[in-house]
Amino acid sequence: MNNPLLISTAAYDGYDLATAFEEITLTGVNLVEIAFIEGYTDPFSEDYFNDLNAAKINALLDEYDLRCLSFSSHVDLSRAGIVEIFKNRMDFAQKLGSQYIVSNAAPQERKNQFMENIRELGQTAAGMEMVIVLENPGDGSANVMDTGEQAANLIAEIDQPHVKVNYDFGNLLSHSFDKIRPEEDYKYVHDCAVHYHVKDVDSDDSGWYFTEIGKGTIDYRKILGELAALPEPVPVSLEIPLRIRRAPDATPRRAARAVDLDQIRQVMQGSVEFVRRALSV
Fold first, then answer.
1. Terminus of the chain with fewer CB atoms < 10 Å: N or C?
2. Residue 58: CA atoms inside 13 Å, Cβ hemisphere, count?
3. Which CATH number is 5-279 given?
4. pTM
């Protein structure tokens, strides 16, 4: 298996980073994606992203012998004032050693402002030797990259070598209301996706929910085998936000209480074992 395998701290929402890192070490994975995602993780403010907190996180990474390869920092990149906010988050991510910073793109109706912002941010990323990876959304609202095909076209239009795609298989299902399958859709981004979020999804009358990889509706055995066969290894991050459900309209709902650690541990261990087997083709 040549693909870098990461675990996102989003699975441990409600627990501190020390707990998340300790749990991740139990899976045998030593790469992490640290997640600060509004609405999906514990609340935070922009003041958090400072040198002191970066030093504290780096000390924890050293303590648990982990490396931060990716940093999740999802925002609407068409928002007023977002360029300076995101630059500060990029600087924070770089201090943690992250090579990739993951974000949403923007609603379709604000594409022009998004394009102006992302071109400036792409130049900043180039100077920092980081890659901004834009993620296809899952909330059902019209976006500049609703599908893999749209994402590929958008990256070509942006035309910045340090702006690429983070393809999220699970997001596609809720975003398209199960009308498009990720097993085929993701092939559109083979040339521009440099990072993948792996989450499995099932649904019931209350909407969509996340499962152990291999126990949902996505054919990850097929997908991961194809990713392993690509000419260049791509990072595969297990982003399994167990505390989140998506309502029938695809909007996210965060449970009032954190998921029990024993349940998280079981899901993550089973997911890691499944993904490692599927990537070892």
1. C
2. 13
3. 3.20.20.150
4. 0.96
